[in-house]
Amino acid sequence: MSKLVLTVDDSAAIREMLAYVLKSAGHRVIEAEDGMEGLQKALANQFDLIITDQSMPKMDGITLVKALRALPQYTSVPILLLTTESSDGMKDEGRSAGATGWLVKPFDPNKLIDVVSKVTR
Amino acid sequence: MAVDLTRFLPMFFEETEEHLANMETQLLRLDPNAPDAEALHSIFRAAHSVKGNSALLGAARFSEVMHRIEGILDRIRKEQLKPETDVINLLLEACDVVREQGARLKDKGECDNAALDALYEQLNRFGPAEGSLHAVPSLPPPIRRSERFRIEVDLPSGQGITGLPLANLYAELGSLGRLEDLQTDGVTSLSLILLTVQAPDSVREKLHTLLGTQSVRVTAYVPPVKESAPLAPPGAAPASSADEFGLFSQESSLTQTTEVLGERRFGRRSADHEATNIMGRRATDRVQLDRASIRVNVDKLDRLLNLVGELVIAQSMLNETATRNRAQDARLRDSVAYVGRQTRELQEAVMAIRLLPMDSLFSRMPRLVRDLAKRLGKEVELNAQGGETELDKEMIEKLADPIMHLVRNSLDHGIEAPTQRAAAGKAPVGKIQLRATHQAGGVVIEILDDGAGFDRRKILAKALERGLGAHAGMSDEEVWQFVFAPGFTTADEVSDISGRGVGMDVVKRNIRALGGHIEVRSRPGEGTHIAIRLPLTLAILDGMSVEIAGETFIVPLSLIGEAFLPQNYQIKTITTGARVVQVRDAYLPLLSTEQLLGLSSRPASVQNAIAIVVDVDGRRAVLLVDQLLGQQQVVIKSLESNYRRIPGVAGATVLGNGRVALILDINALLHLEAAASTVQVAGAA
Amino acid sequence: MQDFSLKPAPSNAQPAALREFLTFRLGHEDYAIDILTVQEIRMFESVTKLPTTPDYIKGVINLRGVIAPVIDLRVKFGFENADYGPFTVLVVLRVREKLAAIVVDAVADVVGLTAEQIKPAPELSITLNIEYVMGLGTRGEQMLILLDIEKLITSRELGIFEEESQATH
After folding, report:
1. Contact present, B364 and B404 (Cβ < 8 Å)
2. b/e sequence B591-607, b meaning 16+ C-beta within 10 Å
3. For strand B540-548 and strand B551-556, is the pairing parallel, antiparallel, or unpaired?
4. What is the separation of C-alpha B515 from the centre of its chain, rounded to a whole number of angstroms?
């Protein structure tokens, strides 16, 4: 089923790649350039899934996850963190902030589609 | 079906370039005694992004180098290391190596691993040693350092977090600085950390205006002794993850999610929905306002510009047809005129898109100056003003080389060594200033230095030696012009810094090609002032359409002095067969366009012709045309893109009737005329 | 499931059974050029003359905002008749990212030729310089001279693609 996905990443290249992969799986995508914009877009729409990078200007991914989880409409919407490594430190932070899962960059497009369908079921 | 993602690779390369450039700029600005937190963050983020991109580009070694850099930056952030000159130099060098290898990777598909390994070692071996205090100041540091504040907001009772204008709050805070941490229980209070250059009072005021009666507390943030950093600890190699993805808790929370979600959605949605909508809409408005820029592929932009150019021509054709039917519909003519105005506005707006701030050029200078000054053993302070002045993108690209050459010259020949300066009673640190301003419908770029100035004696001697027509009575301005002669150099040996002195004539030619002029003022012992004057854009020209031998040509309006009806007695033939025209008390060469452009073999007859005086940098001549057709703004089209350069022709344009008209290169015609006649007339006949 | 890849997909090269050509008349002969080089065909319209160019470069025209040269091959190869009549037409070619238009006496058709229909050209039978001829095509009774138009247009002889030398004559 087609989901509405928010992608947040300061790299235009990553955003394009994500959009390309998600759209070819039939999902709809809205993009944001940093945590702040992501938050504003999240307030303006109701997303089925949010995929966010960690390191961004204005507001990073972990802070975004925390801000989202504080909102009633996003307490349980799946949020995935895109990271450059899957260190334990990152995992702990992500978990305590309330993220649903993580995906390491560079991501395997097929794995992404898999994870997306799994968490949005 | 195999889908090709390689289309994204160029974007990654481009982004990596940008990140490296950004790192460089920020590194140069860093104050070793009080490194700005926001700047460090920015550099770190850039390194982090390059690290991530490298993995995608299949360049694992880049990734490792970046990781080392992250480690060093982390140390600086934690105040375990002072970012003094040697640290900065190493980091700058690292950027260079990565950039170089990145280019190789892009072009050849492979990079020099040995170079990267060597760099890695250097970064590794870098201990927390004291750097020297011999810092070369470059751009002035930001006015106020960024600081962290803790912001606490009491949530309105009963409504909790939903009672707060969240979108506006986040937007406002976002415009002030960077949010670092957010904690809330959703019911009683919200707390965040804001990293900003704004003063606490100003932050407090803004929040009070925004949140009304909610109590808001803004206090200085004291970091806890043990900071849990979201940064990977230095020394650890990036975790090679067997797990590329994962979920934090697999089982129950997911199923719970859907149920709970459903309930929440139906239950609370109605109240929240409204709130979100009202604020949501405002939030999106805010987004448009805050979004400062958008990336556009250059090809798309060019296509847009071409289409608009075509629209202008189409409107022109429409206008001509409407004018021909003047007896008929007045409303038609009015509509066409209206479309004309809209089209011209559209064209201006679209041309404005091509404008980039001069900063994109100026930003390369600090690095250049720093490296070169170091190499030459000179001390220089670089100052740039007017970086926000805008100029056509293509012009900026073409100005890069000339301006860098001029700055190099200033450093090499202008600014003296510290001892020499001291002996001359000057401050040991020399000053170079770059300035860009809008003047009289164009842009002026200036390069000033307080160095030794031009050496009149040397230049005059060289000019005499080369038989360039110099003599002792010439004014300074006239003498300085000689440096623009091809191959001119007063250097006793050729230094590889500014080249063989062929640079200046190329600089002048490049500036000319952009439709501009270059002026030099210099005072020996005091300094040099170079001014480059340019039109705003390459693509549009104010021209005068003229008819010569039945064909329409365009003459650049800025080069036209006056026009008059010549009398027979004013035209004289001199011994070589060339002709001159008497204009008041001067005799100006007559440009025989027919012969120069090969239009027809008979020389232009004076009867019924109109004489136009053209002036190129003080060199004047007369052009005879059959008719003056009118003044108009023309869109310059390239002849070279599908054919090639023709001497005497600067380009082409499409007229209202759809036909092509050639734009005359007056400067080239002057040269051709001079070459054709062997004797130059310098005075009265 | 789709297969994504960051490596370029392998190209599927298939042997072409039939090649398509645009045929036209120049002087007394019929020529054919690879259809892929042809961008469009236009009526002959008045051309803006260019100064100091060889006589076979008639001038330039405006192709939807782009300025392109017009080449008269009849003049270049010395055909006697280089008139402009009602059937004179401009064939706009796109060769290596540049546009150029050639003047032809009439455009005939787009035809497909199989490998069997193409034979090598004997040395002395035609007026055109042999190096630009790829072969001869037969369509029933008609003989078509297959021109390597890309080679011709980019040749030094024609002088359109030179970087910065003076106009040759």
Report:
1. yes
2. bbbbbbbebeeeebebe
3. antiparallel
4. 18
Judged by CB atoms closer than 8 Å, whether chains meet at C5 and B2 is answered as yes
Q: Is the ipTM of this complex over 0.90?
A: no
pLDDT reported for residue B677: 66
Which residues, including other chains, have CB under 8 Å from residue B302's CB and lie 6 or more apart?
Answer: none
Interface test with C, best of B11, B299, B644, B663 (most C CBs within 10 A): B644
Separation of alpha carbons B260 and B444, rounded Å: 65
According to DSSP, the β-strands at B627-635 and B610-616 are unpaired
A109 vs C contacts (CB less than 8 Å) = 2, 4
Q: Which of B525, B509, B337, B331 is nearest to B425 (CA)?
A: B525
Q: How far is C4 from chain A (nearest CA, A)?
A: 6
Per-position pLDDT tens, chain C of length 169: 445 555 554 555 444 568 889 999 888 888 999 999 998 888 887 889 888 788 899 999 988 778 899 999 888 877 777 788 778 899 999 988 788 999 998 887 888 888 888 888 776 555 567 788 888 888 888 888 899 998 888 887 787 765 433 333 2
Per-residue tokens: B251: 């089982």
Q: Answer for the pair B541, B634: CB distance below 8 angstroms, yes or no.
A: yes
Q: How many CB atoms lie within 10 A of CB B109?
A: 8
Tracing tokens 């060469």 back to the chain, one arrives at: B589
Subunit contact A60:B230, Cβ cutoff 8 A: yes
DSSP state of B637: B
Neighbours of chain A (3+ CB pairs under 8 A): B, C
Q: Which CATH number fits domain A4-119: 3.40.50.2300, 1.10.3720.10, 3.10.180.10, 3.40.50.80?
A: 3.40.50.2300
B323 — contact with chain C (CB < 8 Å)? no
CA distance C162 to chain B (A): 8
Closest CA to B610 of B595, B629, B594, B596: B629
d(CA A93, CA B231): 11
Q: Return the partners of chain B (3 or more C-beta pairs < 8 Å).
A: A, C
Residue A78: cis peptide before it, omega within 30 degrees of 0: no
Tokens of B422: 């001291």
Which residues of chain A are within 8 Å of residue C3 when distances are taken between CB atoms? 110
- Cα C40 to Cα B129, B244, C99, C161: the distances in Å are 70, 52, 10, 20
Domain chopping of chain A, boundaries: 4-119
Residue with tokens 């001509």: B320
Q: Which candidate in C6, C57, C158, C161 is best for mutational testing of the B interface (most B CBs within 10 A)?
A: C6
For residue C102, list its beta bridge partners. C71, C91
Please list, in sequence order, all residues whose beta carbon lies within 8 angstroms of the beta carbon of residue C28, skipping any fewer than 6 positions away.
none
Residue B234 buriedness (CB in 10 A; 0-12 / 13-18 / 19+): middle
What's phi and psi for B196, nearest 5 deg?
Answer: -150, 160
Q: Does B243 touch chain A (CB under 8 A)?
A: yes
The Cα of C96 is separated from the nearest Cα of chain B by a number of Å equal to 10
Nearest CA in chain B to A55: B45
Two structure tokens written together for C6: 């960051």
Residue A96, min C-alpha distance to chain B (Å): 10
pTM over 0.90: no
Following DSSP, what letter does each residue of B441-510 receive, concatenated?
A: TEEEEEEEE-S----HHHHHHHHHHTT-S--TT--HHHHHGGGGSTT----SS--TTTTTS-HHHHHHHH
Binary contact (C1, A113; C-beta < 8 A): yes
Which candidate from B310, B643, B644 shows the least CB-CB separation from C65?
A: B310
Which residues in chain A are closer than 8 Å to B260, comparing Cβ atoms? Answer: 75-76
| From C52, C60, C166, residue closest to B598, measured CB to CB | C52
